[in-house]
Structures are given as C-alpha cells and as structure tokens.
Design a protein that fits this description.
The chain is 29% helix and 20% strand. It is α+β, with helices and mostly antiparallel strands. The longest helix has 15 residues. The chain starts with a helix and ends in a 14-residue tail after the last helix. A hairpin with a 2-residue loop joins strand 4 and strand 5. It folds into two domains: 65 residues, no CATH class; 125 residues, Gcn5-related N-acetyltransferase (GNAT) (Aminopeptidase, 3-Layer(aba) Sandwich).
C-alpha cells in the first residue's frame, strides 16, 4: 500500500480507538519491511504485533478493521472522527441583489433541540425497552422475566442503570457484586452494557460506565470487573480506553 493508503489506514484505526504501528525497517526485502500492527490507546497489542514490533501486512490490518463490526455498542467510544469536506457553495447574494430579483430573504432555519440525556436506575416499566436492547447482544428474554429481575436487583440495591434521551430508554448497564473469600471487599461487576443503534456516537457508554463505578463504590466494592464476549473486539478497545486491564480469562459451562 502507498503512504497515503497507510495514512488512511491509521485514521481508520484511530476512529476505532486504536493506533496503527508502522515498522521502522526501511530496507526492502528485510523481514519486517512494510509491516504494520494495531495497539490500543495504552500501547497493548491488539493484532499484528509481537515483542519486536509489527508483523502484519497492511491488507490484513485493513480487513481486521473492516470486520470489527461498526454496529457493536462499542461504537459509543469517544474517538476522533474525520470531518466531511464541505461542498463548494456560491457566495450569497447581497440584499440589494435580492431586492432587485424581487425575492424576500429566507429566514435561517431554527436549530433542532438537543435531546436531553439522563441516567437513572431501571424501573419495571422499562422492561419492554430493555428486552429490545438485550436482543442486540443476542440474548433472548421476556418482559415478565426482566420485570421480576429488576425488582429483585432493586431490593439488593443493585438495580441496573439505564440512559434516556428525552425520557426514552436508549441504553442499559447491568450491575452485580459478590463476596469473594480471597478479597476483603466485594467484587463489583458490569455484566452487560448496550446502547441502541440510534443513540451511538454520543458518549453514552462512557457515562454509563462512570455511573456504574460510582454505584459499585457506594456498595462497598474494592474493584470492578467486566465480562465481554470474545467477538466484541471494538468493545474491548472501549474498556481499555476506560482504564480497564485484561487480568484473566473467563470460562463458562451450561448447567
């Protein structure tokens, strides 16, 4: 790929909260010449990296970025987005020219109101909206089941958090806390985080994580951990951006 193509690849990575690392080898024919790789914002390898540097072809990294799945809720990550180039427009006519043409000047359009964002604990009446959000992560559940679990979690002071835009529920963050024999304080957990497709790109995921950390801290938790499906690579980059570190591997078995 040419240098402009590499620059475009670097921008594509930045738009996903990642960093493109280029090989320092400048001699054609040498092993790492022209190789690239990806790291997260803290420098941790994501793809195409080993201890000595980049190992992937630009085309491989390009395919990886293309297949990240822009529909994932991780797209709510606050990252730099390339601005669209404005189309060339004709200079506006003067008032005198407008009068001569016999046309009255058009009034400027009123700006659309910005939806009001709020974060609160979930209520049983939110169950229908929450079923739709949960389905975005391929989990099937019922409104009755969600209402029942909201009530139980509220009694335990671990009610899920929801984000609303103009009072419409658009995001969900589930909380949990458990006592562990090897820890002095309970372990907090974010067990689900999902933002509606229509509400992504507003930083709602970040605000929900901040609110979840505050809630778990008040609950007495000493640490907070996150569970996330292996296929949600962009979500993993989001959590690293929020200061989380990968410390273990989760195993699961159906009973």
């Amino acid at each position: 790929m040419s240098d402009p193509a590499i620059d475009a690849l670097a921008e594509s990575a930045a738009n996903r909260g990642l960093k493109l690392v280029r090989s320092r080898v400048r001699t054609p024919g040498k092993r790492r010449f022209g190789k690239v790789g990806l790291t997260d914002a803290s420098g941790k390898p994501v793809v195409g990296m080993d201890a000595k540097g980049p190992t992937a072809k630009p085309e491989e990294v390009e395919d990886y970025l293309r297949n990240l799945g822009a529909g994932d809720w991780g797209a709510s990550l606050d990252v730099r987005v390339k601005k669209r180039a404005r189309r060339a427009t004709r200079p506006p006519k003067s008032k005198a020219a407008t009068k001569q043409a016999g046309a009255a000047p058009k009034a400027a359009p009123k700006p659309l109101p910005v939806p009001k964002l709020a974060i609160r604990t979930a209520k049983p009446s939110d169950s229908a909206a929450l079923v739709d959000l949960i389905a975005l992560l391929d989990h099937k559940t019922s409104e009755a089941g969600v209402r029942k679990r909201i009530a139980a979690l509220s009694r335990a002071k671990l009610a899920p958090l929801v984000a609303t835009l103009d009072k419409h529920v658009v995001a969900l963050c589930g909380l949990d806390a458990m006592a562990a024999i090897h820890r002095d304080q309970p372990v907090g957990r974010i067990n689900i985080l999902v933002v509606a497709k229509s509400a992504r790109g507003r930083g709602i995921g970040r605000k929900l994580v901040d609110a979840a950390e505050d809630a778990l801290r008040r609950h007495g938790c000493g640490i907070v951990e996150v569970t996330s499906n292996d296929r949600l690579a962009e979500a993993h980059a989001f959590y690293r951006h929020m200061g989380f570190e990968r410390t273990s591997i989760r195993f699961c078995k159906t009973l």
